[in-house]
Write a structure and sequence with these properties.
Layout: H1 2-22, E1 33-36, E2 39-42, E3 46-54, E4 61-65, E5 69-76, E6 79-87, E7 91-99, E8 102-112, E9 120-124, E10 127-129, E11 133-143, E12 149-155, E13 158-164, E14 173-182, E15 192-199, E16 207-211, E17 218-220, H2 225-261, H3 265-281
Parallel strand pairs: 2-8, 10-17
Antiparallel strand pairs: 1-3, 3-6, 4-7, 5-6, 7-8, 9-11, 11-14, 12-13, 12-15, 15-16
The structure holds 2-acetamido-2-deoxy-beta-D-glucopyranose (NAG) (5 copies).
Domain Intercellular adhesion molecule N-terminal: 28-118
Membrane topology: Single-pass type I membrane protein
Protein name: Intercellular adhesion molecule 2
């Protein structure tokens, strides 16, 4: 018995709550407010047209809330067509209409986008020995929104790396992808390139593609260690011979000069010295 009355009370409460939540101002039939288009993409500083309309036959009031510049391009009782200009960041706009003292609003999102215009690929270093590593860097300045961007790094037609980005700051950003790889002998016949894809389909926009200029590596064969030793030895021997010959030349030229200028009286005197000594003894 007790449980039954409690159940009835619960049911009544639920119905009352439902009525409150679902049909406010239960006297007037609920009306709707529409915005077209629902989602919009715009370039920085761009402008867009938007149509706010209502199902209410005789709205008392209607408008668009925005701190940005707006112009009414056309209007009738049930709709207003606006031009909003100078949009520089992602914004949520609200259209509202008042019918029989009741206000209903609808919001729409506008996202600012900038397709990739420059895709810069850098290979570092550009001269690589087979088996040595090098870095591929792809830079895309001034692109947004970053969370719709993917950068692909290619070796020939093979995808080496793809990179996505989290939500960036609202201002125009630079996106960078880097990848380290090892040089192969065949790489000398392959182009490296980078592709930037800005996919705005889910935001009501288009897909933008931009390729970098292709770049090639200069690949050389590494010199094996045993060969290196031979080269170093040969070069050392040659250097030694060269230096020795210069030294010998110098010594001989000095000798020749002394002979010509006759400054070896000392040596002659030295040779004569024993004779002089014996002469004295005798
Ligand atoms: C705005 O939307 C309403 C309702 O959908 C439509 O009747 C009207 O022609 C539209 N106005 C413009 C200028 O597109
Ligand atoms: C709106 O436009 C007018 C003239 O076109 C300009 O003087 C004003 O600064 C603009 N206001 C905003 C908030 O951009
Ligand atoms: C607008 O964006 C906000 C988040 O930024 C999202 O929660 C909301 O659902 C979006 N509204 C529309 C109409 O797309
Ligand atoms: C890449 O190109 C080579 C020939 O240049 C071809 O044999 C290969 O199937 C291609 N690979 C892909 C994934 O397109
Ligand atoms: C590399 O790119 C250059 C410039 O686009 C092109 O002329 C060349 O044929 C390409 N080489 C290969 C192997 O794809």
């Amino acid at each position: 018995m007790f449980s039954f009355s409690c159940g009835t009370l619960n049911l009544n409460l639920t119905l009352a709550l439902f009525a409150l939540v679902c049909c406010p101002g239960s006297g007037e039939k609920a009306f709707k407010v529409h915005v077209r288009p629902k989602k919009l993409m715009v370039k920085p500083k761009g402008s867009l047209e938007v149509n706010c309309s209502t199902t209410c036959n005789q709205p008392e009031m209607g408008g668009l809330e925005t701190p940005l510049n707006k112009t009414v391009l056309a209007q009738q009782t049930q709709w207003k067509h606006y031009l909003i200009s100078d949009i520089s960041q992602d914004t949520v706009f609200q259209c509202h209409f008042t019918c029989s003292g009741e206000q209903v609003s609808a919001s729409f999102n506008v996202s600012v986008y900038q397709p990739p215009t420059q895709v810069i690929l850098t290979l570092q270093p550009t001269w690589v020995a087979v088996g040595k590593s090098f870095t591929i860097e792809c830079r895309v300045p001034a692109v947004e929104p970053l969370d719709s961007l993917t950068l692909f790094l290619f070796r020939g037609n093979e995808t080496l790396h793809s990179q996505t980005f989290g939500k960036g700051a609202p201002a125009l950003q630079e996106a960078t992808a880097t990848f380290s790889s090892t040089a192969h002998r065949e790489d000398r016949h392959r182009n490296f390139s980078c592709l930037a894809v800005l996919d705005l389909l889910s935001r009501g926009g288009d897909i933008f593609h931009k390729h970098s200029e292709p770049q090639m590596l200069k690949i050389y064969e590494p010199v094996p260690d045993s060969q290196m030793v031979i080269i170093v030895t040969v070069v050392s021997v040659l250097l030694f011979l060269f230096v020795s010959s210069i030294l010998l030349c110098f010594i001989f030229s000095q000798h020749w000069r002394q002979r010509r200028t006759g400054t070896y009286g000392v040596r002659a005197a030295w040779r004569r010295l024993p004779q002089a000594f014996w002469a004295q003894q005798a």
